[in-house]
What does this fold into?
Amino acid sequence: MLDKPLFGCFVTYGLPDIAEFTASLGFDFLLIDNEHGVMEQSVILDMVRASQGMNVPAVVRCESSEFGQIQKSLDFDANGVQMPLVNTKKQAQKVVELANFPPVGKRGVAFLPRAAQFGLINDKKRYLEEANRTKFVCCQIETRQSLENLDDILTVEGIDVFFIGPGDLSVSLGMNTSDEEFIEILKNTVQKIVSNGRVAGCYVGNYKEAERAISWGATYLVTAITPYMAAGAQQFLNAVQKKDTSEVKVMNAY
It folds into this structure.
């Protein structure tokens, strides 16, 4: 369990400079979004390196259809992986298998990638053991099917966080994220995860949503840099177009 809430930030632009800039803002971790972002493998590697260069852990969100990206991201020495649309216990088990070296899992062994210091590690056995022990694994709960199978999914060991994606979940349920019924489902899901002794995570669009999720028991909170960038630009344009010279406080928009 996490002792205190951690706050991360999605980066969907395939640019190491944006990753480095976002990491410098003070987030606890960066979530490099290869599910919705447009990113080449070499760019993901450089984004991981850029975030870690600011002493901020980097987690890669993989494509839901590409389980092999789990192994590739960990070879890049990402601190962890996050898998979207995990709908069944079997899928959750597969994520854990591919994130761990044998005998724990089925991750392919290689000693030449960045994670293994490009072949310069001396104790290969220790490397494999440490990699299994220190990597982070997150599975996303964001469909009607995943809610129906949640009790079974929560029994899978080796998953550090169960992350709720409100956008996908609301669409799957035919609701809006602002509907009272949906908010109650969100609350109940977080609380079920926590009551089972597991760590719950959630996407939050603003500080009020973050406070709400924390009050339910969520401790892995993720926002996105893009809305804040847009809000800052929009507030600036509104101010100058109206000849308003008052200070623009970007973060107040959320």
